[in-house]
Amino acid sequence: MYEDKTLVCKDCGNEFIFTAGEQEFYAEKGFENEPQRCRDCRQARKANRNGERKFYTAVCRECGGEARVPFEPTSDKGVLCSACFEKSKSAE
């Protein structure tokens, strides 16, 4: 039913094989789109997402201490440091 397909990686431009077995796996999982990246580029992208997370420093709106957050804080909304965040979470 499935046959190997040659696809082109959207990151590096190299051709890669989307095997019949991989196509069957995608179908079983309900994935509708074919992979857009070769195995090496997928692994590199995943490693980047998981390994190099950028943190920002801000002032905690509760205690005034340093808060390190994984998003760029905006001036209209304050942020909480880890300790104040945990306190607010357990108060709910």
Radius of gyration: 22 Å
What's the number of helices? 3
**Portion in strands:** 15-25%
Give the tally of β-strands.
4
Structure summarized in a few sentences:
This protein is α+β, with helices and mostly antiparallel strands.
Structural commentary:
- This protein has helices at residues 20-29, 39-51, 82-91, and strands at 5-8, 15-18, 56-59, 66-69.
- The model has no long low-confidence stretch (mean pLDDT 88).
- Strand 1 and strand 2 (15-18) form a beta hairpin.
- The strands form two sheets. It has a two-stranded antiparallel sheet with strand order 1-2.
- The chain has 92 residues and is an alpha+beta fold.
- It folds into two domains: 5-51, no CATH class; 56-91, no CATH class.
- The protein has three helices and four strands; from the N terminus they run ββααββα.
- The N and C termini lie far apart (54 Å).
Highlighted features:
single chain, 17% strand, two-stranded antiparallel ribbon, 92 residues, alpha+beta, two-stranded antiparallel sheet
Strands, helices and their partners?
Layout (H helix, E strand, L loop, with lengths): L4 E4 L6 E4 L1 H10 L9 H13 L4 E4 L6 E4 L12 H10 L1
Antiparallel strand pairs: 1-2, 3-4
